[in-house]
Amino acid sequence: MNIHHIQSELRRSYINRFYFLPISALMAVILLLSACGNPGSNNAGAGSDTGAAAASAKETEGTAAAPAVLNYGFIGSNTLNLPGGAEGWGLYKGIIQEELSKYGITEVKVTGFPNGPDQTESLISGRLDFGSLGDTPAIIAYATGAKTRLISQLATNQIAYLIGKKDGPETVQDLQGKTIAIQKGSFMHRYIAGLLEEEGVSGYKFVHMLIPDAAAALARGDVDATTNNGVPALKQVADGYPLLDDATKHPALLGSSVTVVSENYLSKFSAFPKVWNDAREKALADLKLHESEYYEFIAKVNDTTPEIAKQVYPIGDIKETAFSEEGTALLEGTKNFLVKEKLAKQDFDISSWKLQ
Fold first, then answer.
1. How far, in Å, CA of 40 to CA of 21, rounded?
2. In terms of C-beta density within 10 A (0-12 exposed, 13-18 middle, 19 or more buried), how is residue 150 classed?
3. Distance between CA 133 and CA 275 in Å, rounded?
4. Given the DSSP bridges, would you call strands 148-158 and 130-134 parallel, antiparallel or unpaired?
5. Which of 69, 187, 63 is nearest to 126 (CA)?
6. CB neighbours of 247 closer than 8 A, spacing ≥ 6?
7. CA-to-CA distance for 98 and 39, rounded, in angstroms?
């Protein structure tokens, strides 16, 4: 099956855009970490004199200059060690670094994580200052007591795919009593849990596996289905694995990604949300002027071709502002589901989490 055909069909079905899920063990870990408090950031350069840049940034909107080193986390792994979107482009081209240097930030340390729960743990423990991740692990962490604030919602249209094994299940209903590989704590976990509830499927078993391991298990026939996203999912379908379902058919189950910052870092640089979002918007404006080069960059990030990158990760999907009504509705829906399923420890007001 042609990847271009698959993607065009899926995107054509994606008309209404609106939403992920760690387990109780993850919440226990988060609670334990948050109970220990947020240790100080490991920014070795905090308070140092970095010359003209630091001197020009001694104050912005009533706050002192930021620590010299900024620790940023994202979900993914690639040779560039960068995320996609405006954030990745801005870091790749140096646009974001240039903007941050005006406030005394001389280095941005970027770290990729295999999933949201792992990144959240690093954020809570103080190894990261802020990070971009799926909304489900971010919501669960905050509901469990993690001292974070939401500063932007990067995308509201992440598509999860449900892939079956060859000569295995052909419909969602066929997953009754079957074993499904999921990446716990991801937006794909949120999608599959919500889908199976919608379809009235029960008796299934979730097995936590990172995407590469899940793909290998599916190929061996050790699991009956798995969730995936982006280019890897389309490659599986093109290789003959049956596509049982995808989130375009369930707008409420679409994924979104968010950026959160620790309160510990905000205590050092309270103007950070505006500074970061302004730098991100400048990067977005620049990438729109260099579309071809941007898709070459995204192709490297996702190990694919610029043509496929353009289909799967179109520039039009990148949010231009930090928040939108559509995105907030998506966050509310995800949060309500997590609370209902007792995956989020307590309910909370999304607006009290947001910093604008």
1. 28
2. buried
3. 19
4. unpaired
5. 69
6. 158, 159, 160, 161, 191, 253, 254, 255
7. 28
Report the phi/psi class of residue 158: left, alpha or beta, with left for phi > 0 and alpha for psi in -120 to 50. beta
Supply the DSSP symbol for 37.
Answer: -
**Rounded to whole angstroms, how far apart are CA atoms 277 and 279?**
5
d(CA 145, CA 160): 28
Rg of the chain's alpha carbons, rounded to an integer?
Answer: 20
Residues contacting 350, CB < 8 A, separation 6+ = 150, 328, 331, 332, 335
pTM: 0.79
Percent of the chain at pLDDT > 70 equals: 82
Question: Phi first, then psi: what are they for 107, rounded to 5°?
Answer: -150, 135
CA gap 53, 105 in Å, rounded: 8
Contact 107, 96 (CB under 8 A): no
**Comparing 50-54, 95-99, 348-352, which segment has the lowest mean pLDDT?**
50-54
Taking the C-alpha atoms of residue 330 and residue 356, their distance in angstroms, rounded to an integer, is 17
Identify each DSSP E strand in the chain by its residue range: 59-60, 63-64, 69-75, 107-113, 130-134, 148-158, 160-164, 179-182, 205-208, 225-229, 243-246, 255-262
180: nearest Cα among 166, 198, 159, 165: 165
What is the tens place of the pLDDT at every residue in 274-316?
Answer: 999 999 999 999 999 999 999 999 999 999 999 999 999 999 9
Residue 240 falls in which region: left (phi positive, over 0), alpha (psi -120 to 50) or beta: left
**Cβ–Cβ contacts within 10 Å for residue 292, how many?**
9
The two structure tokens encoding residue 83: 């995320």
Block residue for tokens 């290998």? 216
CB 209 within 8 A of CB 181: yes
Q: What's the chain's average pLDDT?
A: 85
